[in-house]
Automatic annotation (TrEMBL):
GO terms for molecular function: NAD binding; NADP binding; oxidoreductase activity. Residues 277-290 have a biased composition (Basic and acidic residues). InterPro entries: 6-PGluconate_DH-like_C_sf (IPR008927), 6PGD_dom2 (IPR013328), 6PGDH_NADP-bd (IPR006115), HIBADH-like_NADP-bd (IPR029154), HIBADH-related (IPR015815), NAD(P)-bd_dom_sf (IPR036291). Residues 2-161 form the 6-phosphogluconate dehydrogenase NADP-binding domain. Residues 269-290 are annotated as: Disordered. Residues 164-259 form the 3-hydroxyisobutyrate dehydrogenase-like NAD-binding domain. This is NAD(P)-dependent oxidoreductase. SUPFAM superfamilies: 6-phosphogluconate dehydrogenase C-terminal domain-like, NAD(P)-binding Rossmann-fold domains. Gene3D superfamilies: N-(1-d-carboxylethyl)-l-norvaline Dehydrogenase, domain 2, NAD(P)-binding Rossmann-like Domain.
Length: 290
């Protein structure tokens, strides 16, 4: 298939590599001259406008940083959905507001373009191994048609209902993950208060019934203080989106909200003391260690 790819960054680039290895013809959007030179040196076909990237594509992938960027590159007179040919499919991977997914579906329907809300969980290493998790909202028939393409880099690929549900599942997952990291950090605090060394408890707990992927992230970091520099930029963005979406829906975050507002989360997960921009969350690629 002919593929247009918007956002060949930390997450997007290994997807591009897997798609090319599967035999697809990929054109990538790269605007910065230095990034384009590097991509072309790697043998990639590069263009510098959205229409040039997507107009001939059978499928277009969007892996950018923020909800605002998704709307910018997909909507409007210079957006992907305006330039794509009828019958093509747009696959949107960026963590964003569920209403954005619904807007894309509506805009695509006007021109006969299908849209999949394909929220993801995993990191570049998972993509390289073909085991990225996808939660996909949209038309199930469209997903079935696109599944062989997505299987180039993802497994499992889970259908979760209408467009927007992919993002909703991702946001619930993000809230649970960050809360679990905060609970793991507080467990280390508790251990210290009753006389157990931090390194000892982090070595012991992953082998018990309290083990979780979040605990594994803390244990792999080696100490509580090493968690925030690894996760803060990414998780602060995700938690902000969770709160905004919950507030907009009138949903109660309940115990998750209490943990997300705790010192263990706000000070030890979401605030990076080593960052010069620690007082304002930075937008980051759509990837995570979950």
């Amino acid at each position: 298939m002919k593929i247009g790819f918007i956002g060949p960054g930390r997450m997007g680039r290994p997807m591009v590599d897997r798609l090319i290895a599967a035999g697809h013809e990929v054109t990538v959007l790269v605007r910065r001259p230095e990034a384009r030179a590097a991509a072309e040196a790697d043998g990639l076909t590069c263009v510098d406008t959205v229409p040039a990237a997507v107009r001939d594509a059978d499928a277009v992938f969007v892996v950018v940083l923020t909800d605002e960027q998704v709307r910018s590159v997909c909507l409007g007179p210079e957006g992907a959905l305006t330039a794509m040919k009828p019958g093509a499919v747009l696959i949107q991977h960026t963590t964003s507001d569920p209403t954005t997914a619904q807007l894309l579906v509506e805009a695509g329907a006007v021109r006969g373009i299908g849209v999949l809300d394909a929220a993801l969980s995993g990191g570049p290493h998972d993509i390289a191994a073909g085991r990225l998790t996808l939660w996909v909202g949209g038309a199930e028939m469209l997903l079935n048609e696109a599944r062989p393409l997505l299987e180039s880099y993802a497994s499992p690929i889970l259908f979760v209902g209408p467009a927007g549900n992919g993002q909703r599942v991702k946001l619930v997952n993000n809230a649970l993950f960050v809360a679990q990291v905060g609970l793991a950090i507080d467990a280390v605090r508790l251990a210290g208060s009753i006389g157990i060394d931090e390194s000892a408890i982090l070595a012991a707990l992953p082998h018990g019934s309290g083990a979780s992927r979040a605990l594994g992230v803390v244990a792999h970091a080696g100490s509580v203080d090493a968690v925030a520099p690894r996760l803060a930029a990414l998780m602060s963005k995700d938690v902000a989106v969770v709160r905004e979406v919950a507030a907009g829906a009138g949903a109660d975050l309940g115990l998750l909200g209490a943990v997300l507002s705790s010192d263990a989360v706000t000070k030890k997960v979401l605030t990076d003391p080593t960052s010069p921009t620690r007082d304002r969350p930075r937008p980051t690629p759509a990837d995570d260690p979950r």
